[in-house]
Amino acid sequence: MAASASFKIHAKPGTDIWRKPPHADVFNAPTAIPPGVKSTSGPLNTFVSVQASVSFAWKERYDQAGLLLCLRKRSVSEEQSVELTTAPPAKWIKTGIEFYNGKPMLSTVACDAWADWSVTPRTMGAGASATATWTTLSIEKEQDENGVSLWVYHIDDLGEKIPLREITWVFGHDPDRWNIEVLAMAARPEKSAIDILEVSIKDMAIEWNN
Length: 210
Known about the structure:
This protein is mainly beta. It has one domain: Jelly Rolls (Sandwich). Helix content is about 0%, strand content about 55%. The strands form 3 sheets. Strands 4, 5, 7, 8, 9, 10 and 14 form a 7-stranded antiparallel sheet that branches. It has a 6-stranded antiparallel sheet with strand order 1-15-6-11-12-13, with no helix packed on it. A two-stranded antiparallel ribbon has the order 2-3. Strand 8 (about 90-100) and strand 9 form a beta hairpin. The two termini are about 10 Å apart.
């Protein structure tokens, strides 16, 4: 699981990934495939984990960047995706840093039918910038006596894995019939913003069980 070189994503104002009843369904945030990573998509059951570090100067409410998993249904007889890859995925998960209530938050959104959002404060280590620092997150497939799920972790400044969220529905809908695509993303939902959000991402690594 070799880590990628560093790369950047630029997000214009009015970009987001979000789905909320009764009619909000936005999927226009820029995404990127890390350079040097051979495979960023495959059958859902072969996904093992993804990890990356992100940094950006948060300014506007909901400024965000991190990891994105896109789930698209496959046909039974074909290996190709039923949905066009240019269309928004039926299901998705994103996790990263999001600027909310005037603070950088560890943010995770899991969208099955609709999006569920959870946030927790991102504590800063000694010497960290007030407006930007590196934050490392991972999403990992895990199994226990109750079944299979995805766990989202924050890897803190001391290298400790802090559990943020368990997402249980991912492998509960005929997992053999789904593909997963692993991307980096950034968004600046504030439509009145003037500047483009620049995000730096490094050490992105994806592991598959092929």
